[in-house]
Design a protein that fits this description.
245 residues, alpha+beta, 9-stranded mixed sheet, 9 strands, 26% helix, globular
Length: 245
């Protein structure tokens, strides 16, 4: 099991998988040897290896922590978060930061799948009812995004930590239409869908007064240019992980 290396100026990509079945989610308690996670509950969390596909990492980590194999085709990426954590020296004084990104994956099992998690070297998995998730025993950021992600929403966000204490939280939902859109092909959307997307991402819709007598396609191209510029300016980091650019 590969946990995040705790030294300054290290960048990493983590993957956490939440397995759902029968109105319950598979979480687990970390055993001694898991560093700051010891005694706390999370989903199936681990570090993605260099050049490893995040979905393959999700399947590997699930097997390493819970002894289960899950098919790749039913794994859904629901969120990407940027994390910054303060690193302390032997005297407990800040000596740098560690930056990493965490992808939240969801596997919705069918009602007939036999999923029997097994205790492993570092992890004790257990099924938890969705209405009884023990947030007080979990990392502080989980409370901010679990409900939305488990409800089927997609999210982006940024968190700052000092040890186990969360100092900053900024999360937002991303319209599902963006996640399902192949290669960000905005031309596949209707004008109303483009307007909704612009509103959700906070981009100011261009004035259309002078287009009052123009054909709908002209208005649509204006919106496409707007969203394209917004995406290039604000979401370059997303492309790196979601599209391999």
């Amino acid at each position: 099991m590969e946990l995040l290396r705790r030294r300054s100026n290290v960048k990493a990509l983590l993957s956490q998988t939440l397995i759902l079945q029968h109105d319950r989610v598979l979480l687990g308690t970390w055993k001694p040897g898991a560093g700051e996670l010891e005694g706390r509950k999370t989903g199936l969390l681990g570090q993605v290896r260099e050049k490893e596909d995040p979905t393959d990492a999700c399947r590997r980590i699930t097997f390493e922590l819970a002894g289960m194999e899950i098919p790749a085709k039913l794994i859904d990426r629901r969120a990407v978060f940027i994390m910054t954590d303060t690193v302390e020296d032997e005297n407990g004084k800040p000596c740098g930061t560690i930056d990493y990104e965490e992808q939240e994956m969801v596997y919705e099992a069918t009602a007939y799948e036999e999923l029997v998690p097994k205790e492993t070297e570092l992890f004790i998995p257990e099924w938890i009812p969705l209405d009884s998730i023990p947030y007080d025993e979990m990392p502080q950021d989980d409370r901010e995004w679990y409900p939305a992600v488990l409800s089927g929403n997609c999210m982006r966000g940024y968190f700052e930590f000092e040890g186990v204490d969360m100092k900053l939280c900024n999360v937002w939902e991303v319209p599902r239409i963006v996640e399902d859109l192949p290669a960000n092909d905005f031309h596949a959307l209707t004008v109303d869908e483009l307007k909704h997307l612009a509103k959700c991402c906070g981009a100011k819709e261009p004035g259309l007064g002078w287009h009052a007598s123009a054909p709908p396609r002209a208005r649509k191209n204006d919106l496409i240019r707007l969203l394209g510029a917004y995406d290039r300016a604000h979401q370059k980091w997303r492309d790196k992980w979601f599209h391999g650019i």
